[in-house]
Design goal:
Helix 5 links the parallel strand 2 and strand 3. Helices cover about 40% and strands about 15% of the residues. The protein is of the alpha/beta class. It has an eight-stranded parallel beta barrel, surrounded by five helices. The protein is globular.
């Protein structure tokens, strides 16, 4: 059983438990449920830097990245730095995040927020909306085509952008459909954890132009972004690079200045 299978098995148990504790009707009554969402896809199209910065305390591959920072400070720092959006990890067991992080970030900033989560159930989309997300992540490696279709169409009804993440051509071909907004190519091989920007380059020509192309993982330098921009990428998800510093907002600001 690889790490992804393990995470998904745990996630199914977690979601079943949550559904028994918090009914859908309660999520739909949340103050944030009626909030007008902000499109990350549009923000990236209008940006010349395209940075999506992440809030991430730890990960399965690097146990601890940064446990000491306050989410609201990180969010405000990122917004002040001029990032296009923020990715908030809400998985507790493997990444040390929570839905509370999403709510706290939402209260602190106006920019688009991505709920970074292992989504396996429509219930999690309602949660994302109730806790202030603008975008959800769907991971092609853990979903069938039917699930991607059902989840992305529900997301559209909830006015949430959909970022679909793929790792290879097979995942990309099974997933392409009009209900997606952004297509993310993860440069990390899920089986070996090796990272290569060649993955983004080779898949770029297979992604139709109506989707905003996002490159994820292993982007730690301005050079990497400049290298990927000619391939049509407009979004760049940067996680550990900023989070492993004492002041992620400041390091994002320095990075964006260099990029400009």
């Amino acid at each position: 059983m690889n790490i992804l299978d393990k995470i998904v098995a745990d996630k199914r148990r977690e979601v079943d438990l949550k559904k028994s504790l918090i009914p859908v009707s309660q999520l739909e009554r949340s103050v944030l449920f009626e909030r007008k969402t902000v499109s990350l896809a549009n923000t990236l199209r209008q940006s010349n830097t395209g940075i999506i910065a992440e809030h991430k305390r730890r990960s399965p591959s690097k146990s601890e990245i940064n446990q000491g920072l306050n989410v609201q400070d990180v969010a405000r720092g990122y917004e002040a730095a001029g990032v296009c959006g923020m990715s908030v990890l809400t998985d507790g067991k493997y990444f040390g995040g929570s839905l509370d992080d999403l709510v706290v970030a939402r209260a602190a900033v106006q920019m688009p927020l991505l709920r970074k989560e292992f989504i396996i159930d429509e219930y999690q989309l309602l949660e994302a909306k109730a806790y202030g997300a603008d975008v959800i992540l769907l991971i092609a490696a853990i979903l069938t085509r039917e699930e991607i279709k059902a989840f992305s169409e529900l997301a559209k009804k909830l006015q949430l952008n959909v970022l679909l993440e793929v790792h290879n051509e097979t995942e990309l071909q099974k997933s392409l459909m009009p209900s997606l907004d952004l297509l993310g190519v993860n440069n990390r091989n899920l089986k070996t954890f090796e990272v290569s920007l060649e993955t983004s380059k080779s898949l770029s020509q297979l992604i139709p132009d109506e989707f905003v192309k996002v490159s994820e993982s292993g982007i730690s330098s301005v050079e990497a972004i400049k290298d990927l921009q000619p391939y049509g990428y407009q979004g760049f998800l940067i996680g550990e690079n900023f989070m492993k510093t004492e002041n992620p907002g400041k390091s994002a600001q320095t990075f964006i200045k260099k990029l400009r």
